[in-house]
Amino acid sequence: MRKNKTYNKKKVVIIFFCCAFMLFGLVGRLVYLMVFRSDYYSEKADDLHERERDIKAARGKILDANGVVLAANKTVCTISVIHSQIEEPENVINMLVKELGISDEAARKRVEKRSSIERVKTNVDKEVGDKIRAYGYSGVKVDEDFKRYYPYGTLASHVLGFTGSDNQGIIGLEVKYDDVLEGINGKILTTTDARGIELDVIGESRVEPVAGYNLRISLDRNIQLYCEQAARKVMEEKQADSVSILLMNPQNGEIYACVNVPEFDLNDPFTLNYNVDTSALSEKEIQDLCNKMWRNACINDTYEPGSTFKVFTMSAGLEEGVVSPTDTFSCGGYRVVEDRRIHCHKRTGHGAETFVQGAQNSCNPVFIDVGLRLGVDNFYKYFKKFGLMEKTGIDLPGEAGTIMHKKENVGPVELATMSFGQSFQITPIQLAATVSSLVNGGTRITPHFGVDVMDDDGVLIETLKYKTKEGILSKETSKLVDEILESVVSQGSGKNAYIEGYKIGGKTATSQTLPRSANRYISSFLGFAPTDNPQVLGVCIINNPQGVYYGGTIAAPVMRGIFENVFPYMGIEKSEMVSDEDISQE
Q1: DSSP line for 407-420
Q2: Is residue 60 a contact partner of residue 213, using CB atoms and an 8 Å limit?
Q3: Catalytic residue flag (residue 116)
Q4: Which residues contact 303 (CB under 8 A, 6 or more apart)?
């Protein structure tokens, strides 16, 4: 009997300690879960009982130089369904088909999908969203949202760019300043029971979105509009492939207009801006066509600048002292360099002429001589000094760089052709920025659009700043270049850009694209005013014009028409001209 009692006592003690150990383990586990892992399981519980829907933040506006809204927001709706809350599935399906214009199959797939929340359609017009909300069907959610809207459609399309369905920038200023324009999304939180049904007694909580900042840019809607009209007109008259126009302030780099016609509709950016049958094309081919349409030729594409580049050779030659305004040259219609005969545009030649007259006549042999006097080392020295070996740093994505010979591969023939703007390529914005720097007293500027960042109340958040570099050309040489280029317009090849009473400097160009046998030309003109204190500089480039294709004949008049309208608008007053004789005496 004692043995049994002792044995039973041991069993009781063992069972007691086992139970105590288990209980202690359970208590420890509870303490661990409730204290140390409370945050984790609280979040898991919230995930089970809370549904979260985003409230998109309003994207900041893009304003022109005068505060005109160029990119705004339009209220739209996002339609979603919650399977567990739908009480009349067939009615909901029929309603979605009717109001959203989607197929019965697509609507049924969304309604019958067992998920916490299923998005049916985004960017739905607010009027349609209000109609759907009025049905009052359980499980159908209508959330107000924002869609980017461009009040002027095609205006400055290659500059402004557009956003995707997620309201993030894709091209242009929209993507470059995405971190400024995008806001912080808000949230709607609703609590549900174990079946996923919303608890009305608790309601919903909201985290309000924070709108993005507004961006004020230097582009002027009125100037841009007039430049686009002028570009479209000359494109139609000359049956050209495209026309690009840049207008900027050569003192600080602010861009007033950047035109690339044909432009495209920012509110419908995936529709091509020309008639083409896309039925037989693949998605990739269609996307390639869209990418081509979206390219900003002023920024993304390079070309041979032709005679407008003679401003560079002129500046370098005068600065280095290898030429002076009174130096005399002889043009017989060509210049022989090694074994190559390089022609002037005037095959019969210009005869004897001074350097100033050579500039007025846009005489290739004169500039070949200046280029050869400079030599390869000096030519590349100034090419680098003037900033042509680097990108301009413009605040738009995808800027192309200069395509140039390696220095060791340049011989007399290459140097001769480069001296008048052939056998290498730059972008139009690089040409405009470099010439601006050569005529403004020698300060290298950064071309740009962004000026100020502001909140929606107009409070200034930040004034954007850009790099400059002083002394790339002496002020004396810059002044002399201004005066020579003024004589080109008043008495030379740029006379079709002349406006009585204004000191306008400029340079014409006609370059041939590769392959030369295709007989395709680029006609261009670069002009600025007033020459004694440049306030506006413009470049007009006409690609593949039909018929007469000389830059002085078709591009210079376009710039004259723009200047005639822009000068009074900008408050640039008339002044007396400087004669060619005055330049020659300096």
Answers
A1: GGG--HHHHHHHHT
A2: yes
A3: no
A4: 425, 426, 427, 428, 511, 513, 522, 541
Side chain identity, residue 529? A
Look at residues 235, 230, 304 and name the one whose alpha carbon lies nearest to residue 559.
230
pLDDT tens-digit series, residues 229-246: 999 999 999 999 999 999
- Apex 116 CA angle, 111 and 121, nearest 5: 50
Give me the half-sphere count of Cα atoms (radius 13 Å) on the Cβ side of residue 391.
15
Q: Of these residues, 307, 487, 490, 524, which one is catalytic? A: 307
Residue with tokens 């609703």: 190
Q: Shortest CA distance to 171 belongs to which of 47, 46, 71? A: 71
DSSP lists the bridge partners of residue 537 as 248, 528
Sort residue 283 into left (φ over 0), alpha (ψ -120 to 50) or beta.
alpha
Helix axes 475-491, 310-320, angle to 10 degrees: 140
CB 267 within 8 A of CB 151: no
Task: Give φ, ψ of 248 to 5 degrees.
Answer: -150, 170
Strands 62-63 and 214-217: parallel
Give dist(CA 305, CA 335) in Å, integer.
Answer: 20
Which letter does DSSP use for residue 453 in this model? E
Q: In this predicted model, what pLDDT tens digit does every residue of 437-489 receive, in sequence order?
A: 999 999 999 999 999 999 989 999 999 999 999 999 999 999 999 999 999 99
Beta bridge partners of 214: 454
**Is residue 525 within 8 Å of residue 539, measured between CB atoms?**
yes
Sorted by sequence, the CB contacts under 8 Å of residue 362 that are 6+ apart come out as 307, 310, 345, 488, 492, 493, 507, 508, 509, 552
Own/partner contacts of 387-390, CB < 8 Å, gap of 24 or more, are 387/433, 387/434, 387/437, 387/444, 387/469, 387/472, 388/312, 388/426, 388/430, 388/434
Q: What is the pLDDT of residues 309-362, one digit of tens each?
A: 999 999 999 999 999 999 999 999 999 999 899 999 999 999 999 999 999 999
CA distance 523 to 512: 9
User: CA–CA separation, 247 vs 156, rounded Å?
Assistant: 13
Query: What's the pLDDT tens digit per position in 498-518?
Result: 999 999 999 999 988 877 777
| Contact yes or no for 291/397 (Cβ under 8 A) | no
Burial class of 400 by CB neighbour count within 10 A (0 to 12, 13 to 18, 19+)? middle
For 100-151, the pLDDT digits (tens) are 999 999 999 998 888 778 889 988 888 999 999 999 898 898 888 888 999 9
